[in-house]
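Title: Prediction job returns without error message
Component: structure pipeline
Severity: low
Priority: P3
Assignee: unassigned

Description:
Job completed but the reporter wants confirmation the result is attached to the right record. Sequence as submitted:
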Amino acid sequence: MDHLSIMSIRVDHRTDSAPKVQEILTKNGDIIIGRFGIHDPGEVNHGLITLNIRSDMGRIRNMADQLEGLDGIKVNHMQA
């Protein structure tokens, strides 16, 4: 069963992690309904990406695990 949910991704050390994060998000692009990204204007190396996603929980957990496996990445997920 597909779930509509929200995932936030905090990216520390944006310059080092951003390409790997982008690769994972591109690979999972078919489950991403919407994406919003901002950087912290007070701290250039930090950013926040918010995703609206629809998929089964296994696929969502897999993407979150891949992202959290990267240095400087923190993921939060909330089911709507």
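Comment from assignee: result matches the submitted record. The chain has a mean pLDDT of 91.
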